[in-house]
Amino acid sequence: xxxxxxxxxxxxxxxxxxxxxxxxxxxxxxxxxxxxxxxxxxxxxxxxxxxxxxxxxxxxxxxxxxxxxxxxxxxxxxxxxxxxxxxxxxxxxxxxxxxxxxxxxxxxxxxxxxxxxxxxxxxxxxxxxxxxxxxxxxxxxxxxxxxxxxxxxxxxxxxxxxxxxxxxxxxxxxxxxxxxxxxxxxxxxxxxxxxxxxxxxxxxxxxxxxxxxxxxxxxxxxxxxxxxxxxxxxxxxxxxxxxxxxxxxxxxxxxxxxxxxxxxxxxxxxxxxxxxxxxxxxxxxxxxxxxxxxxxxxxxxxxxxxxxxxxxxxxxxxxxxxxxxxxxxxxxxxxxxxxxxxxxxxxxxxxxxxxxxxxxxxxxxxxxxxxxxxxxxxxxxxxxxxxxxxxxxxxxxxxxxxxxxx
Length: 406
Description:
By secondary structure, the chain is of the alpha+beta class. The chain has one domain: CATH 1.10.630.10. The protein contains 19 helices and 14 strands. The chain has a six-stranded mixed beta sheet, sandwiched between helices. A hairpin with an 8-residue loop joins β12 and β13. The longest helix is centred in the middle third of the chain and has 24 residues.
């Protein structure tokens, strides 16, 4: 068995190692069972077979190495191609996505939108976040209970990304529906079983993006869409459509899922929710702890562009490697504790390297404002039924989260 730190006299191809296996397509592995299975795997080895294809690295050092390596890249369309999807709306949408680009094109496009996602830019949106949270809370305050996903986690980030981009905020239900379907492109189970639904969502969303851009050409505003339309020859029409599409989708279900999991964790640790209400200065640390303990991208895929040697193990060119933030993050502690000292290392939830999540600052601000606003207004927060988990492939969210308070 291969363990971190073991010395070896020769480099061994990863395919020749006696490794434990992890079937990441097992639909029964959600919630506590998911983390229990991963924890057992990480105890046995820092690398394992990822069934039905590829390998998975599990400890923080190995995960960070793979994510930052210039010898590996996000597989993008290859994840669809290995499942026989080589054309259609889903494939075409991913073809121009930032995640599918590397090198100069990736840097050029990312540079165009980066100013809208700096810490200062996120802070400027905090008053708007508070306003929308107040409106959403007004709809459920008298009830003292709600499905948190439906009442807060789904609308809140969708409204915020629409506002930033210049899309009508009233369109948030459609943005939410499309985003949650399209992100299934990274889930092999959903691609295998729900391809028609994913294709339909991708096609409808690309049509919506084109209409949105045409509207902004006729009626410019103070938003990112208008800025991108003014970029002139720095963007082709296809690049513009793909860039806008990627941001609108990426800014919805990721924060939705992280917020829902955060509230679930506080329901399971009521004393920490109480401390958060009493000590709002704990909010930034609480955000980091939620991101660390339950990353909504448990696995980030990379494909080797060339042979990679690490810890006396060789990953051949073309190897699919899953970097497990779900285990790497917990190397600094197996318990959820918003007051624990986790050192200087930040969670790997947003990835690392060139494809580090563009919207990380906005997501952190949205989570912080939500916890700050809700903690004093939802005393004695508790589960009001069983959470319904999505699969932990692609974006790991919750379909529903019944809660009560007061």
